[in-house]
Each structure stands twice: as C-alpha cells, then as structure tokens.
Amino acid sequence: MAIPTVAEYVIDRLADLGIRHVFGVPGDFAFPVDDAVEASDRLTWIGCSNELNAAYAADGYGRINGAAILSTTFNVGAAAALAGVMGCKAERVPVFHIVGAPSTRLTRSRRHMHHSYGDGNLDQFRGYNEVSACASAYLTPQNAVPEMERVIFEALSQRMPVYIQIAEDYALMPVVGAPVRGVPLAEAQTFSSNAEELDGAMAAILARLGKAKSPVVLPAYTIARYGLQKELEAFLAATGIPFATPAMSKGLLFESHPLYLGDYNGEMSQDDVRKIVEGADLVLDIGGVVYCDPDTGAFSAHIESSKVITIRPDHVEIGALAETGGRGDASYGPVHMKDILAALTRQAPKFKTPSFSRPAPIPAAGASDNKVTDTSFFSQLQQFIEPGDTLVADTGTGDLGASAVRLPDGAQFQHAALWGCIGWGTAAILGVGLADPSRRVVLVQGDGAHQLTANQIGTIGHYGLNPIILLRNNGVFGIEEIVMGNSDPAKIKNYDRLPLWQYHKLPEAMGCRDWFCVSVETNAELDAALKKARTLPGASYIEVQLGSEKLLPALPPEALERLYQVKAPKTAS
Ligand SMILES: Cc1ncc(C[n+]2csc(CCOP(=O)(O)OP(=O)(O)O)c2C)c(N)n1
Ligand SMILES: [Mg+2]
Asked: Read out DSSP for 206-259?
C-alpha cells in the first residue's frame, strides 16, 4: 500500500475516530488538506459560507458525534473561525482544527505572501490559535504520526479543540514511520486515573457521604461531553440522591427522572428547588459546574464551598465550587470522573429521597386571535416539542424561554450558555443535524442573533437538512435591554434596534428548495404553522412577529450590580 502524505494521513487518522464530515472553507494553502478530504471515501466535505459558521457547525456536530473536524486556510480563514473555536473550548467540544499554511520554504525565506501583514513574518499568529486549543501541533513528515496520536489523546482527554497546522510542502510529503490505524471515538484511549489518588478521593468522598443526611447532586454539562449520562444515572439510582440542573446542563438526563428536582439557578430557581439545593448538607458537583453567571442565576447561588465536593473530569476537589472555581481543602488527581462514578455507584450509601413537587410544564397561554407574545410563544413551544426533537436555543430571550420548557423524554437540548455568542444557533444546527439525521432539529433564535450567521441557511438548504427554524422577530436586541435594566419600549437604545428584514424570504433567496416558509403574527397562525411544519418531511422556517411594543421585565438593580459590578465600592467611613 502506498505511504500516505501528511495531509492524507491526518484525514485518514481522524476518519478512524468515526467522524464523517469536515466543515470548512477551502483556500490555496489548504489545498492539500482539501484534496485529501475530497479523495476520502469516509469523509464528506461540508462547505460553509464563512469560517465562523463552519466553526459553529463543528461545535454542534462535535457535541452530538463526540468530535468534529474544521478545515480553514492560513490566517484569514483560521482567524475568522477563532471565536467559534474558542467557544468550543469553553463549551468543551473536541474539534480538530486543521489549518493549511504556506510552505516551509516560503516561511524560511520570509517571502511577503498574501494572507499576512506583508512584512515577511508568516508565523506571528500562532498564539491566537494556540489559546483556542488545548494542544497544538505543527506537522512535519517525521512527527505527523506521533503528533497526531498526541493531539487526539489531548482532544479526547480534555474534550477541547486542538490546532493542527500543516505547511503546504510538508502536507504533500509521505509520512515517516508506520501509520497508526485508530479505533472509534468510544474506544479511544484517554487519560487514566492514578490508583492511589482514586482511592484517596473515594475515601474522602465516602467519609463526607457517610456523615451527610440531605445530599444533592448538581451535574455539569461535561457529563454529556464525556458521554457519562448512563454512569450518572446508575449512581443516582444506587443512592437515591436528587439532582438539579444548572443552566448549562439542561437536558442532561430525562426530565421525568424521579430524582430530578428541576433547574437550579440561584435566586432564579423555583423556591422548593432552591431550598433543597441550598439547604443540603452536602453538594456533589459532578462534572465541575462552572461558577459563572449563567449557571448561578447571576451569582445568586448560596452554596458554601465547605459543603461542596467537586468531581471534575480529571480531578476531585473537596470544598470547591467557590467563586474562583477551585481552591478546595484537598484535591486528588489525575482521577477520571467515570472511575469515581463507577466506584460511588458500588460503594456510596443509599439515602432517603426528600419529597418535592415536580417541575411543571409551561401552561397554555394566549387567545388564538391575539398577537403572539413571549408568554404565548413559549407556551406553544412547550406543546410542540416531541421526544425525537433536538431543541437548539441561541443566546437572547429565546434561550431564557426555551430553557424553561419541560422536555419530553427523548428530547435533547443544546445551547452555548457559557460562551454566549449570538449567531451560534443558526450555524450550529447544520452540524447538529448532520451528526444525527434521525432527530428533528428545532431552532429558537432571535432576529439579532440570526443576522450574524443567516447565510448558513443557504448551506443548510444545500445539504438538504430539514430543521424547523423559529425566528423570533422583535426588531431589537431584546435581552440587552433586560440586562441594562430597561423594560420601557420607548427607551430602547438606538444601538439595540435592528434593521428590519423580511426573514421568511431568506430561505428562498438562498436557494432552499421546497421549504415551508411563513411569517405569523397571531397565536392561531403560529399554531397552524407549527402543526403544518410537523407534518412536512422537509425544512420549515417560521418567522414569528413579536413586535417590540413589549419587553420582558428588566433585571432588578441589585441583580444587575451583582452581575456587572460597575459601581465603585463604598469607602469605609
Ligand atoms: C457574538 C456576540 N456579539 C454580541 C453579543 C452581545 N449580545 C448578547 S445578547 C444580544 C442580543 C440578542 O438579540 P436577539 O437575537 O434579537 O434576541 P432577543 O433577546 O431580542 O430575543 C447581543 C447583541 C454576543 N453575546 N455575542
Ligand atoms: Mg431580537
């Protein structure tokens, strides 16, 4: 068999993992990589109209598939993808970002090439790419085989992106050494626990559990990223400890789970959920809840760090979840979260589950002839979501409302609550849909967010996906008014007012064939459009006219100050 070139080897090695698509935009320095994808019978090129869209699509794909590939060209392409790749790092999605670079001859001779500042320096942006990744590799024919093993190991161990740069001349040379034939993602090797540290961690956790009377679990989104939902369920079943989900973990387990208390979001939680979580004598933070504003109701969580055990993906901290996200009394590592879950399932005591009321679905609202409001929109969304759906919500008031929808068993939920980049949703659903075509993707997105990445609609149509897109047209960057404390429509800032597009005409203009596209204003029209969308096998695009006459209630001043801390601290008198 012919020895593969570096570019062919990289593509082949990543295909071994069970990744089936490559998101990207081609470019001259990346031609060897693009050609290797083109020639592969295991990977399909998914061309996006810009690199940010491609990165968001890779994010959506990686969440479902376990990992994704993004291909961009030198500087202009890689830089355009950066905000999306950085988001993957925050949200813990392994993405192999492959960047084609000028040949080593050009770099050595300091040739003034395009896609640079024209100063002969073809290397000055390394740092930007490296901070977006957990590991970086600059491939040569000699190091390609071992370096690929290293970055695959890191990406899967840390569930974060890696940066792989390939100079164009090296990309075309045969690799040195025996190519590795890899295994699918689920079997791929990642870091393992140190036996002594694991014993130490278990002894510490069991000692605390032994004294606890009313423990609760706060599971983090990383459990989904490491594919450990079954292990979490086994642990919950063995111990009877109830759990509440912070915002980023929405949809982690079925919401009909008998131990599911509801969402925990500090002072923004339902009272009984908050009482149980904050009244617990031990909080097991499994997965490492990020002590960030979206996960703590804008820092209104009242959980003493001394009551917390944090089981992070690779280490355990006793007394963590502090504002700094760490500094526990003791820490143990490397210890894999899956080993802790397995050991706890075997050894942890059984607890008496407290009684609590189950979180209620959003009630019906809005007379049929009335205009759609935020309240009636989310009430209809609640009715609409089905077990086979993946509900994707973009940052904005749409995410706030969608997060309150009670998910029927089987329905999945995705949002990028930590990175919080608007425009992510439209672009991400391309990847979400391709990763699992058996599911129906339902996107809830605001008009402002949509304007950032709307051209992904053309790509979604081109590749024949069938999402149901619910575009919330309120004419403003609505949530911005909420977080500046304004609930008066007359006082909306100019910079929060949007150009008024005729959104429902976009799919047709972008070449999407046979899409059901409609603009609705009343509850009856929305209801009819949703029912029709459900009966159609193809994509639907429903523009919901909300008007900006009404804004959602603004956050109270004390919450705003807790969140943003912009006032000068009082001086001691
Ligand atoms: C990439 C990026 N740019 C800017 C912001 C700041 N931002 C956060 S929410 C938001 C407004 C979202 O408006 P829209 O999508 O219309 O949703 P609405 O709140 O009106 O429902 C903006 C501009 C951001 N989060 N991400
Ligand atoms: Mg809006």
From this structure: HHHHHH-SSEEEEE-THHHHTT-HHHHHHHHHHH---EEE-GGGTTSS-TT-TT
Cα gap 269→402, rounded to integer Å = 15
Rounded CA separation 276/503 (Å): 44
Per-residue model confidence as pLDDT tens digits over 346-375: 999 999 998 899 889 999 998 999 999 999
C-alpha span between 194 and 97 (Å, rounded): 30
Of ligand 1's listed atoms, the one at least distance from the Cα of 396 is: 19
- Asked if the peptide bond before residue 334 counts as cis, ω within 30 degrees of 0, the response is yes
Closest CA to 499 of 450, 460, 553, 456: 450
Q: Which residue's structure tokens are 């809830």?
A: 444
C-alpha distances (whole Å) from 41 to each of 8, 16, 30 are 12, 12, 19
Which residue, 287, 306, 276, 272, is CA-closest to 214? 276
Phi, psi dihedrals of residue 47, rounded to the nearest 5°? -80, 130
Is 0.70 surpassed by the pTM of this model? yes
Tell me how far CA of residue 462 lies from CA of 52, 505, 521, in angstroms.
Answer: 18, 16, 29
In the numeric block, the tokens 């799919």 are attached to 507
Cβ atoms within 10 Å of 409's Cβ, excluding its own: 10
Check if the beta carbon of residue 402 is closer than 8 Å to that of residue 393: yes
Site of tokens 């077990």: 387
Query: CA dist 2 to 5, 8, 14, 72, Å?
Result: 9, 11, 18, 27
Let me know: does 408 contact 386? Beta carbons within 8 Å: yes
Q: What are phi and psi of 335, to 5 degrees?
A: -135, 125
Task: Specify the amino acid at residue 66.
Answer: G
Q: Rounded CA gap, 208 and 284, in Å?
A: 10
Distances (CA, A) of 168 to 102, 120, 549: 6, 17, 55
User: Tokens for 286?
Assistant: 């499994």
What the block records as the tokens of 261 is: 């208390």
- The pick from 52, 85, 422, 444 for probing ligand 1's pocket by mutation, whose C-beta has the most ligand atoms within 8 angstroms, reads 422
Instruction: Report pLDDT digits (tens) over 289-347.
Output: 988 888 888 888 889 888 999 999 999 999 866 544 455 568 999 999 999 999 999 99
Q: How far is the CA of 475 from the centre of ligand 2 (A)?
A: 5
| Best residue among 477, 546, 549 to mutate for probing ligand 1, ranked by most atoms within 8 Å of CB | 477
Rounded to the nearest angstrom, the distance between the alpha carbon of 488 and the centre of ligand 1 is: 18
Q: Give the whole-angstrom CA distance, residue 342 versus residue 6.
A: 40
Q: H or E element: which one contains 404?
A: none
